[in-house]
Amino acid sequence: MRDGKSAGNDFEGLRQTTLVANHHVLFGNVKASSSGAVKPPSADELLEHYTSDQLRAHWLALGLAQKSVSFSPKPYETDESKRNDPRVADPVLKEGTLLTNVFNRLARSCFYTAAKYKNCEVKFQEVEPELRKVVLETAEKYEELMAKFEVYSVMQLMDEFIRYANKYWSDNAKNLEGGDDSFVDKFLSNAFYLLYASALMMHPVVPKGCEKIAECMNIETQEFFNWDKFYTLEKSLFNDTIKKVRELPPRYDFFRKHESQYKD
Fold it and tell me: Which pLDDT score, from 0 to 100, does residue 28 have?
């Protein structure tokens, strides 16, 4: 279609604007197909072992745009000794662990600490310059990578950033017990700022969990995840704004493992 009119059979007006690499996702080390000897598992079958978040994060990190890649879920390992050995890691869960362990811990810690020390009333104040510098540099790099469709590099970038945010938490949370109100306010503001940035940039990968974070911070999702407003929202929000965040129930998960991955 061009200008609302049919372009006819000669495809006049149509042009390819994006080149897509023609690489393959191998099942283990072979090219699987429904008509071949090795058949790939269906989506329903995979969802018996993994959450959609875990699968999405893993596939985006594989770097399919660069080369053919191997998808090797442990439940489909043909070597029974490896499949049943708890010491053998499941390659599919590498990125999922970042979500269910590191990212989830950062989010839970922010809200539980706000409830414990501030009755869920957090003063979002001006963020430490060094932290803001790291966030803005990460956001700029994130934009560059997304513009080039280098999603696998985005996943590497976010792995580094979320671990950076979690390290900030663990390095400073130990001083909460002896800290005064001003320290607690500053620490929580910085931590929620890192959580906000993490959720904004991870939203395309794990939308539901990130939207839960926005809802628990009592920020409208349309505003929270509007990338065009990022630089204005983070300045206006973290500017001595008192925000009543939600109180979480015990052991709340923003990013859950698949039920089969929990030990009895």
Answer: 78
Could you count the other beta carbons within 10 Å of the beta carbon of residue 253?
14
Q: Are the CB atoms for 74 and 88 separated by under 8 Å?
A: yes
- Residue 221's identity, in one-letter code, is T
Phi and psi of 251, rounded to 5°? 55, 40
Angle at 154 between CA 251 and CA 69, to 5 degrees: 100
0.90 exceeded by pTM = no
Q: Residue 25 in 3-state DSSP?
A: strand
Kindly report the number of other CB atoms within 10 A of residue 47's CB atom. Answer: 14
Count other Cβ atoms within 10 Å, centred on residue 151.
19
Alpha-carbon dihedral sign for residues 192, 204, 252, 91: negative
List Cβ<8 Å contacts ≥24 apart for 105-109. 105/166, 106/162, 106/165, 106/166, 106/169, 106/191, 106/194, 106/195, 106/198, 107/195, 107/199, 107/213, 107/254, 108/248, 108/252, 108/253, 108/254, 109/169, 109/173, 109/191
Distance (Å) of CA 200 to CA 8, 59, 101, 114, 162:
43, 20, 18, 20, 12
Per-residue pLDDT reduced to its tens digit, 107-128: 999 999 999 999 999 999 888 9
